[in-house]
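re the bet — no i am not wrong, look at it urself. input seq straight from the record:
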Amino acid sequence: MTNGPHTNIGEIMTIPFARPHDQGWIMEDPTYYQFRNHALDFIYKPLCP
Protein backbone atom coordinates (compact mmCIF):
# COMPACT_ATOMS: atom_id res chain seq x y z
CA MET A 1 0.00 0.00 0.00
CA THR A 2 1.14 3.50 -0.62
CA ASN A 3 1.47 5.99 2.21
CA GLY A 4 -0.94 8.79 3.05
CA PRO A 5 -4.63 9.57 3.07
CA HIS A 6 -5.10 8.54 -0.59
CA THR A 7 -3.74 5.02 -0.13
CA ASN A 8 -3.56 2.71 -3.14
CA ILE A 9 -2.06 -0.68 -3.86
CA GLY A 10 1.53 0.23 -4.65
CA GLU A 11 2.94 -3.14 -5.67
CA ILE A 12 1.96 -6.80 -5.57
CA MET A 13 4.65 -9.17 -4.37
CA THR A 14 4.37 -12.93 -4.90
CA ILE A 15 6.01 -14.66 -1.95
CA PRO A 16 7.41 -18.11 -2.82
CA PHE A 17 7.18 -19.62 0.68
CA ALA A 18 4.59 -22.31 1.41
CA ARG A 19 2.11 -21.84 4.25
CA PRO A 20 2.19 -22.30 7.11
CA HIS A 21 5.52 -20.52 7.48
CA ASP A 22 8.12 -21.78 9.93
CA GLN A 23 9.71 -18.52 11.07
CA GLY A 24 12.99 -20.20 12.07
CA TRP A 25 13.41 -21.79 8.65
CA ILE A 26 12.30 -18.72 6.71
CA MET A 27 14.82 -16.47 8.46
CA GLU A 28 17.63 -18.80 7.37
CA ASP A 29 16.66 -18.47 3.71
CA PRO A 30 18.50 -15.63 1.88
CA THR A 31 15.43 -15.09 -0.31
CA TYR A 32 13.50 -13.95 2.78
CA TYR A 33 15.88 -11.02 3.26
CA GLN A 34 15.59 -10.02 -0.40
CA PHE A 35 11.80 -9.79 -0.06
CA ARG A 36 12.03 -8.13 3.37
CA ASN A 37 14.49 -5.49 2.17
CA HIS A 38 12.46 -4.80 -0.96
CA ALA A 39 9.29 -4.29 1.10
CA LEU A 40 11.05 -2.01 3.59
CA ASP A 41 12.60 0.05 0.78
CA PHE A 42 9.14 0.46 -0.74
CA ILE A 43 7.62 1.57 2.57
CA TYR A 44 10.33 4.08 3.43
CA LYS A 45 11.18 5.56 0.02
CA PRO A 46 9.87 9.09 -0.53
CA LEU A 47 6.77 9.33 -2.67
CA CYS A 48 7.17 11.08 -6.01
CA PRO A 49 4.51 13.71 -6.80
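see?? Residues 1-49 form one domain. told u. also The CA atoms of residues 6 and 47 lie 12 Å apart. so pay up
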